[in-house]
Design goal:
Layout: E1 22-23, E2 33-43, E3 51-57, E4 59-64, E5 67-72, E6 80-87, E7 95-105, E8 119-124, E9 137-140, E10 150-152, E11 156-157, E12 160-162, E13 183-184, E14 195-198, E15 205-209, E16 213-220, H1 231-237, E17 241-242, E18 253-255, E19 263-284, E20 289-295, E21 306-307, E22 310-311, E23 313-317, E24 321-325, E25 332-342, E26 348-359, E27 367-370, H2 373-388, E28 404-405, H3 409-419, H4 424-434, E29 446-447, H5 457-464, H6 467-471, H7 473-484, H8 487-505, H9 526-530, H10 541-560, H11 564-585, E30 586-587, E31 592-593, E32 597-598, E33 601-602, H12 608-617, H13 625-631, H14 645-654, H15 658-668, H16 670-674, H17 692-695, H18 707-715, E34 718-720, E35 727-730, E36 739-746, E37 749-758, E38 761-775, E39 781-789
Parallel strand pairs: 6-14, 12-23, 35-38
Antiparallel strand pairs: 1-13, 2-7, 2-9, 3-6, 3-8, 4-5, 4-7, 10-11, 15-26, 16-17, 16-19, 18-26, 19-24, 19-25, 19-26, 20-23, 20-25, 21-22, 27-36, 28-29, 30-31, 32-33, 34-35, 36-37, 37-38, 38-39
Length: 793
Amino acid sequence: MSQNSFLLWPLSKSPTWVARWIAPDGVSSEPNVFFRARHCWTAEEVPKSSLLHIAAESSYLLAVNGQLVGRGPIRGTRSRNYFDTYEVASFLRPGKNWIAVSVHSPNVPTFKAAPAEPGLLVQLDDGEVVASGGHWQVQGAAEWRRDVRSYTFQIGFLEWGDLSGEAAGWQIGEDASEWSAPCLLTKDEGLHEKALLPRDIPALEEAWHAPVAVRVLGSVPPAADLRDGMIAKLLHDEPHQVCNDLGWKGGSLEILPPTDGGGVVLMVTFDREINGALEIEMVAPAGVVVDIAHDEDEHEGRLPVLINAYAFADRYFTREGRQVVGNVFTERGFRVVQIVLRGFSESVTIEGIRGVDHLYPFEERGVFQCSDPRLNDLWGACLHTLRACATDTFVDCPWRENTFYLNDLIVENVVALQAFGDPRLAARCFRLAASQVRADGLIPAAVPCGVMPGMSAERSEDLLTLLAGNLFLPQMLEEYLAYTGDEALVREMLPVALGVVDAFRGWEDGDGLVQPPSHFWNFVDWSFEMHSHDLSNRNTAVLNWIYVIALDKSAQLAGQFGDRQREAVLRGKAAKVALATDQKFWSEERQCYVEWLEDGKPGPVGSQLSQALAILSGRAPVAKYESLVKALSSPALLAPELYLHHFVLRALTKAGQERVALSVVENYWLPILAAGSPTIWECGVHEKGRKAFNGNGSGCHGFATTPVDFLQTVVLGVIPTEPGFVMCRIAPCPLGLSFAEGRIPTPHGAIEVSWRQDGERESLSVHLPAAVRAVLPWGEVIQGGAHSWPRLR
């Protein structure tokens, strides 16, 4: 049973809060705070229903009468927090009852939490008896070491826990430890300045996965100081004395203590990307040191662990007896873990090891199958990648950052709708991003926005306010509306999108072109940075074409919701910027748009991305269209990385170059599968896999899953043409395949498409939900039910 199976969503009504935010005294400004809180009350009888509401800054583990009920909450931002509601009647009993909560707050801004101050808020039903307040008990959780370094600056602190320091029975009042009354947090600052909202997505799905291999690698010498906080450095530097691999395949594994007082090294491998927790079930004496390093690949028989500014390792000390060891408060992403057991003079028995996903409960409603098994495998790898990158938000990658970046949503939004048909996580991401709009109307890309090492919060926010990602917002909303029909969300977000466009209009020069201020990082796609092309403080073709598209998409949305005057103004502006971009950046000699000018002349850099955006805008001069199409696959132009090949593939398709687009997919994505990766890399064009970014490259990145879009909209040929899929186009493109079939989720049910092409014999079969109409390549319009034809086009 999922630990969150008792979590309720959505709520029929929010509670009337009588509870107070509580915390131990003196922790409001302390970093990396751990504490416990509990309350006991007497119930004469057990009600049929009892709702427990809980919020924490920034994470909690909730137990009722000693039984784990759930963990949370979902992430918020600097302006909002969320509370969870559980049905706990089945945990209650007549007589004495206990609620017990463990709380952790980094209490510094990370890319997963934006704490105001540590705090806990709990209320049972609408009564005051079990509402957190001065009658509760609190204590610091001293078994968690606080003065530790970061795991990564995006995720926050590493975990260092001495499990023997947790008093047995504290959750049900059977301990002898000291407790005190809590501090009641004042109502005019801190946590009270944040909006407190009910959870807006279902409970995360918890799935257990057994490893495919567990190897005992050998031994390590005794560590000089087991209290030294540089765990990752120790794991990185210490020599391994290789022994015969025991080839453990499951069951119990008894590990005898090394005779020299050193440690034993195990390597655990999974066949998938895990985003959640590693759990080691073991029987051990007290005080055994368990160091756990997480990664996606081995390097020369071990994990790198200490990579640039990152230290991917946690440490735990065992208590005596049977226990589960692994990360508790913060998710870890991994495919491989290295475990080192140290400091034990008696044997340790490992009973089991598992990876536990904490993922959004997407159902794979989209289906794709064709005659090329490589493309089928690619579809599956993309879905595995996006699922592993979907928790309480979409995240860039499980392993290195676990961060929601607004700009990544240009791919993740549409691909998730195509593959899963569930709009709720995307809607949450839009609203969460909107909750941290700056005074200038722009949105920091990282949500919540953390602080970069060595920078002020203000400088970090400027650096992380990625301009292209802001301009993608109108297109993301248009696509969201097309696939979902959710007008309420788009109406809510439209003023935010228009505010972004207005911010850019303030940076226009006399020609209407935008040159952003120098304090912003003008990030578009990693390909520019990888070739040392700094776009900051430059007037560039790529950003101006993105601006043109944003103006047109904003105009379309404004008109769709009745603001015809705003629509006309934005359309006019888009035409003016497109004309100026064409006149300024077109190189007659190179027959393409260059990225910038030098001394008034075309500069040396041209990108495939700018040509793609010009085509997709629909505003490039017709006379230049043929040259732009050729430039899309020109090796003389800078190719984007996997991320914004999203636009290149779409431009090739729009230009009727579907076979070229398929060759791009084959050249850049299929080698990832051939390398044995179950998920899609962050980089696969200019730098490959883990080798990217000086060894920091992620092997599982949601923004690189655009082949799903290509396979569904081109090979199956299904594209919504009116909001909510009430009208769509069905125009399959065979691309040399002999058959393809699939299922496309819509708000009205699934569209099913199947086509075959065998020599001169063709067939097309379509099944539509009753509320959906479709136009076919030869102009016929169909609605509802099953249809078939002896041709494709």
